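User: Please predict the structure of the protein below. I'd like the answer in structure-token form so I can feed it into my own downstream comparison script.

Assistant: Understood. Taking the following sequence of 108 residues as input:
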Amino acid sequence: MRKTTIFPIPVNRELKKLGTEIKEARIRRRITTAMMCERAGITRPTLAKVERGDPMTSMGIYAKVLFVLNLHEKLGEIADIRYDQIGLSIEAAKLPKRVRQMKTTEAK
């Protein structure tokens, strides 16, 4: 029995957008599906899944396709802490209200 995974609607929407943009970038670069598959080391059905934004396709496959398109540079920024507004807000809330000077004890 195969277990189906349900993804949140916003995730599906963003993956479909990513797939569409990957397909458009491939076409703008005049790269055929056969050329893309050869360069990325994937099959045509896998490329079709990527271009549809299939959430069950591995992130590694998306990364290889983005590399072929020379669009891989921003992958490392997906979860960059500089853009994590929720995490930064939580950290800011944990900051002390005031800072006290440490008392030093003199040696006798």
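That's the full token string. Residues 9-28 form the longest helix (20 residues).
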